[in-house]
From TrEMBL:
Keyword field contains Endoplasmic reticulum: no
Organism: Komagataeibacter swingsii
Taxonomic lineage: Bacteria, Pseudomonadati, Pseudomonadota, Alphaproteobacteria, Acetobacterales
Intracellular or extracellular location(s): Cytoplasm
Binding-site residues, L-tryptophan: D133
Similarity comment: Belongs to the class-I aminoacyl-tRNA synthetase family.
Binding site for ATP: Q9, P10, T11, G17, N18, G145, D146, D147, V185, K194, M195, S196, K197, S198
Keywords: Aminoacyl-tRNA synthetase, ATP-binding, Cytoplasm, Ligase, Nucleotide-binding, Protein biosynthesis
Alphabetical list of Pfam families matching this protein: tRNA-synt_1b (PF00579)
Name of the protein in question: Tryptophan--tRNA ligase
SUPFAM superfamilies in UniProt: Nucleotidylyl transferase (SSF52374)
Gene: trpS
Superkingdom, taxonomy of origin: Bacteria
One biological process term in Gene Ontology: tryptophanyl-tRNA aminoacylation
The protein's enzyme class: ligase
Length: 331
């Protein structure tokens, strides 16, 4: 059975993009992988987080993941900072990765914008820590949304350079599992921007704790253009908002975009938005309700993470310790 690792930043409530791009696939992949899921709080602080909010969101995300179907009896769920092996290997990888490689990371360029100099050094070396997250477990399968693809290519470069520099075959290569549909869900307010839990506008995203009314109202107010829906996929070109809504519908209902357009093509957005609300509510509402119930048990959520961290440590500790020996740290 292959070992799988994936992570999510506890910087807000997971949104529909996190669900379709990652969480839903994590749940499905549990059947035939040994899974390790991580709330990456050390990545979260690469931009400032209010400490009380970070703690609360770590618990809230734990609740959402459990409510979505992550099975902590069979698999591991924990928060990154509780396993110090991540930080130790992250530092080693800072010394393996080249500045030129990090300079090419598009996510850093997008997040830092024009004001690069004012951002934390942590934001710059963010992908090195991500490589460490995966390699601390020698995981070979990493299910992510489209925006993480470049980081996983870098992970493979770092693993390869480590192996080359120290004359070993110690770290494996990873395979990015990116879903064919739903890997890049866009904002409801702007079809050219990614849906994100940190977008200042809550109207731009559907959160996994939204109730049916909130979902219906956000979808009703979602930006569209004034043309009816096209009957064929080629008609979605240059219509990012229409493409996004149709893709969400298709992904959630397990259909192709062509199939959805064959049904709704020629109609205005009104009836389509009603149908879309129905499929989104059907997927999210049970998760939102179960999350609400779990949030009333913070002690249970803390225990779950603590148990997960203990189990994660037993895998990561010997691997990172051996990496330290390989590079000459005196033990
Ligand atoms: P994060 O917290 O931004 O997102 C978690 C997962 O959700 C996916 N995702 C999306 N998928 C489709 N459409 C969207 N709009 C959308 N927004 C987010 C992301 O691709 C991701 O899979 N760097 C990672 C966390 C991380 C990690 C790791 C992942 C840290 N270490 C090791 C894998 C392996 C991140 O910021 O995810």
């Amino acid at each position: 059975m292959q070992r799988l690792f994936s992570g999510i930043q506890p910087t807000g409530i997971p949104q529909l993009g996190n669900y379709l791009g990652a969480i839903r696939n994590w749940v499905a992949l549990q059947r035939d992988h040994e899974c390790i899921f991580c709330l990456v709080d050390m990545h979260a602080i690469t931009t400032w987080q209010d400490p009380a909010v970070l703690r609360q969101q770590t618990l809230a995300q734990t609740a959402v993941l459990l409510a979505s179907g992550i099975d902590v009896q069979k698999h591991i769920l924990f928060n990154q900072s509780a396993v110090s092996a991540h930080a130790r290997l992250g530092w080693i990888f800072n010394c393996v990765a080249r500045i030129g490689w990090l300079n090419r990371m598009t996510q850093f360029k997008d997040k830092a914008g024009k004001d690069r100099e004012k951002h934390s050094a942590g934001l710059y070396v963010y992908p090195d820590l991500m490589a460490a997250d995966i390699m601390a477990y020698k995981a070979t399968v990493v299910p992510v949304g489209d925006d993480q693809k470049q980081h996983l290519e870098l992970t493979n470069d770092i693993a390869q350079k480590f192996n080359h520099d120290y004359g070993t075959e110690f770290f494996p290569q990873v395979e990015a599992l990116i879903p064919p549909q739903g890997a890049r869900v866009m904002s409801l307010r702007d079809g050219t921007k990614k849906m994100s839990k940190s977008d200042p506008s809550a109207q731009s995203r559907i959160e996994m704790t939204d109730d049916a009314d909130a979902i219906a109202s956000k979808i009703k107010r979602a930006k569209t253009d004034s043309e009816p829906l096209p009957s064929e996929e080629s008609g979605l070109e240059n219509r990012p908002e229409a493409r996004n809504l149709v893709t969400i519908y298709a992904t959630l209902s397990g259909r192709t975009v062509a199939d959805v357009l064959a049904q709704f093509g020629g109609q205005g957005f009104g009836p389509f938005k009603t149908a879309l609300s129905d499929v989104v509510v059907a997927a999210i509402d049970p998760i939102a309700k179960e999350t609400g119930r779990l949030l009333k048990e913070p002690g249970f959520l803390c225990d779950t993470l603590r148990d997960g961290a203990n189990r994660a440590r037993t895998i990561a500790e010997p691997i990172v310790s051996e990496a330290e020996s390989l590079i000459g740290f005196l033990k």
